[in-house]
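Q: Structure for this?
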Amino acid sequence: MMQEQPVLSIKNLSKQYGEGCAHCEAADAQLEKNFCPHCKTVYACRNISFDVYRGEILGIVGESGSGKSTFMKSLYFDEEVTTGEGYLRDFEDGQTNIFTQSDQMKRYIRNTILGMVYQNPMLGLKMDFSSMSNIAEKQIAAGNRHVRNMEARSLSLLEHVNIPLHRSKEAPKNFSGGMQQRVQIAKALSNNPPILLLDEVTTGLDLSVQADVLDLIKSIQREFNISMIVVSHDLAVIRMLADRTIVMLNGEIIEHGLTDQVLEDPQHEYTQQLVYSLL
Amino acid sequence: MLTIEQLQKSFTIHHLQKTFPALQNISLHVAEGGFLGIVGKSGSGKSTILKSIYRTYEPQEGRILFESKAFGTIDLLQATPRQIVYLRKHEIGYVSQFLNVMPRTTALELVTQSLLDVGVAQEEAISRAEQALRHFDLDEKLWNSYPNNFSGGEKLRLNIACAVVKEPRLLLLDEPTASLDQASKLKVRESIEKLKAQGTTLIGIFHDLEFMEGLCDDVFTMTKYVEKEVLA
């Protein structure tokens, strides 16, 4: 195993809401958490840098408001980054910054290289369309036009995520939370993306359904050797899934390491608090 | 195979504003195919050494030089997390006293998965997993049930099976016989002897000195009992 190219490399990604002012842009700025008391600018993500390798699951933990979801949305182009660079191995061989691309190119990247599963299925699915057309939609977006192929692909994905096929023409609004999440996962996988982004996918699901979804994620990762970024505030989920873990606080990465190391030998004060709060 | 030089590890607990020393200037060496036993009182830092090698703990100073197949001689403390993940999958195994149960994963699946993770093909993984479970005398009726309600001994044997089935080059054993009855202990011993015969390097912590008798090539005693005094 020699030098290997990361599938995703993020360098100094920052996202702020607001213009910033002399006070908060100073090197020794005193912010209230990630908020400037003078100009009300919110620094949601500050200088986030990391690499993700093939077949690896990277966990991101942190309290509400620490910038986890903003980061994921920025990566999926739902939000525009303020500064920073991102490189994908599967986009121009990792030589071009994805965040400076045209909207058209960003759509191409998100439809072919990235898959996203949101915490809220309403964001990821069209609730009134059938499950099958939800999946087909993503395939059409990636340039597929062959109806039979799309149908076959959608059905095989739904089967894979354990949705009974006789319900494939039903709209996800009639499904339970766990099923909606599974349809979202099927949709995210529809174009065989090398990277899957999972934002709090098990939050709000009851324990047995949670276990179902986690099983599914784990089996997908093993089967497709896909890389994943998993955001969760649930340390048990992270412990089960992630090889490496990043801890975020107030928009910054404060700790980064092997998952068991972060959980058993936490260095930062906040991480220690987090781990000691574990039930 | 493994050389530890001047290892130092302390734990800083922020809310107490205290630092607790755990290891001070530990140096030891294990030759390829050797078995080093670590003995010492509880709290003397035996497990901390193993966890430092496995990089669950992050020591502050020293070196842990491991002769890896993939990376050559590598200082585990300087290795990237990516390299450690690789080493854990392919070269270094760890058996603790506790089983990390995965939700709704049967005993057989658990052992099979640890093989699938290293890239063994499904069919071979299953047959090797079955072999390992049989070897550790885990009742066949239990293979397809969830380990959550296994007895302590059954869990432990399952745990050892998971680690051993991957045939790591270096195996770290953190009191793997702590809650076993005599018969199970013998099974574990038998399997350790087998691993040793295959050339696996082992480092183990055992409370049971009798158990170690004749197994270990060398014994490292945590003589310097570190006072649990606060440093700062």
